[in-house]
């Protein structure tokens, strides 16, 4: 029997029957699995919680239950844009976890060390959106401020620009919530929707200033184009995924790639969404398995569709994208929103995971995690 989608557990804080999840952010790192989520139930209304997978003695490899770390309580304002990151701090010999979100026009970032002690890092004011990542023993954020300026900062007792330089990104974004951050070597790379061209602009820092990687990637034929983007980078290549089409019922995901030695965007592939998706593609996440040269794309569709799909493509071998099916169904989950996706690389295996909110009758607002193995 081949691999199948399996339930990995419920997402909840304290009470699995009293939950109303509206956002999830899933991260996996060397067998450590964490989910940040926004809970809008009456008890935790508007709070952001962080939970971890806990391995059981009965099934030491795949027997996961959820173990609460901390709830970011005591904040009454509405939060959105939940993002999370995890990484191992080599000098401290500690596993660090980070959660970020927007509240009161501030980007707030919380740190949890390996003893799960919570520390609020200094807030970034006048922010409309942002993401947190972990790289080179420190947390990083990319964010858009209230006047559409784009910034990247790393944290070392305070939020500072790359290499301490004062030169900022000159281009502005024309979308308050379209931004992603990755790294190549020690250089941060940021992607956002460019104000002047409406395309995706990708910029790399190094060694003393921000440099554009070729011209913006055009998404010219889409009325709501590039309302979601996802970015991957390593030491030699970059992949960028964005949405394009003539309208919500005719949207697809275009994936472009470029190298650093010869910056020149080319259309790598197009992932076609199911026909007649009435409210279009509501989310997308791109991941890359460098060892097996395989791209993964997870995306969710809105309206009555409300399904999550995951496809993969092995570079140099496959001629088309294939679904990672749930039995006979092309979709992984139906009646599902608030999707997040990541890959676990463990013991020579690549294991896709998704988290999401169920909208099914009787369990609306519940959170689930599935794994494919």
Question: For the residues shown, what is the average pLDDT?
Answer: 83
Shape field? globular
What's the SSE pattern?
EEEEEEEEEEEEEEEEEEEEEEEEEEEEEE
CATH topology: Neuraminidase
**Which stretches of 5+ consecutive residues score pLDDT under 50?**
57-64
Structural class category: mainly beta
The percent of residues in helical segments reads under 10%
CATH architecture name: 6 Propeller
Cα-atom radius of gyration: 20 Å
Structural account:
The chain is mostly beta strands. The chain has one domain: 6 Propeller (Neuraminidase). Strands 6, 7, 8, 9 and 10 form a 5-stranded antiparallel beta sheet that branches. Strands 23, 24, 25, 26 and 27 form a 5-stranded antiparallel beta sheet that branches. A 4-stranded antiparallel beta sheet has the order 1-30-29-28, with no helix packed on it. About 0% of the residues have low confidence.
Helices and strands in order:
Elements (H helix, E strand, L loop, with lengths): L4 E7 L9 E9 L2 E8 L7 E9 L8 E9 L7 E10 L4 E10 L2 E7 L5 E3 L3 E2 L1 E9 L2 E8 L4 E6 L3 E2 L18 E6 L2 E7 L6 E6 L4 E3 L16 E5 L3 E9 L5 E9 L6 E7 L8 E9 L4 E8 L5 E8 L7 E2 L9 E2 L1 E11 L2 E10 L8 E6 L1
Antiparallel strand pairs: 1-30, 2-3, 3-4, 4-5, 6-7, 7-8, 8-9, 8-10, 11-12, 12-13, 13-14, 15-16, 16-17, 17-18, 19-20, 20-21, 21-22, 23-24, 24-25, 25-26, 25-27, 28-29, 29-30
């Amino acid at each position: 029997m081949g691999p199948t989608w399996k339930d990995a557990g419920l997402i909840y804080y304290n009470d699995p029957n009293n939950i109303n999840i509206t956002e999830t952010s899933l991260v996996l790192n060397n067998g450590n699995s964490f989910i940040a989520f926004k809970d809008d139930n009456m008890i935790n209304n508007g709070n952001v919680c962080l939970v971890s997978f806990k391995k059981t003695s009965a099934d030491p490899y795949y027997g996961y239950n959820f173990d609460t770390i901390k709830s970011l309580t005591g904040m009454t304002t509405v939060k959105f844009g939940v993002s999370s990151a995890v990484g191992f701090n080599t000098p401290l010999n500690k596993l660090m976890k980070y959660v970020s979100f927007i509240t009161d026009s501030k980007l707030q970032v919380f740190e949890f060390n390996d003893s799960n002690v919570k520390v609020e890092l200094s807030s970034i004011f006048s922010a409309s959106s942002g993401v947190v990542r972990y790289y080179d023993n420190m947390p990083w954020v990319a964010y858009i401020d209230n006047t559409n300026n784009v910034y990247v900062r790393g944290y070392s007792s305070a939020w500072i620009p790359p290499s301490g330089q004062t030169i900022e990104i000159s281009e502005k974004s024309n979308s308050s919530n379209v931004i992603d951050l990755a790294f190549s070597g020690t250089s941060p790379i940021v992607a956002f929707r460019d104000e002047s061209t409406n395309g995706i602009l990708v910029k790399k820092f190094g060694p003393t200033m921000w440099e554009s990687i070729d011209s913006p990637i055009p998404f010219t034929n889409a009325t709501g184009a590039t309302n979601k983007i996802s970015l991957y980078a390593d030491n030699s290549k970059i992949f960028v995924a964005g949405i394009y089409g003539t309208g919500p019922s005719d949207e697809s995901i275009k994936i472009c790639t470029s190298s650093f030695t010869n910056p020149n965007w080319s259309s790598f592939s197009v992932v076609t969404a199911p026909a007649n998706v009435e409210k279009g593609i509501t989310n997308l996440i791109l991941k890359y398995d460098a060892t097996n040269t395989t791209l993964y794309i997870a995306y969710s569709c809105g309206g009555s569709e409300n399904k999550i799909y995951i496809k993969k493509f092995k570079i140099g071998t496959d001629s088309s994208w294939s679904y990672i099916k749930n039995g006979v169904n092309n979709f992984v989950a139906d009646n599902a929103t608030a999707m997040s996706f990541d890959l676990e690389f463990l013991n020579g295996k690549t294991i896709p995971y998704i988290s999401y909110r169920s909208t099914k009758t009787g369990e609306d607002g519940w959170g689930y995690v599935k794994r494919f193995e």
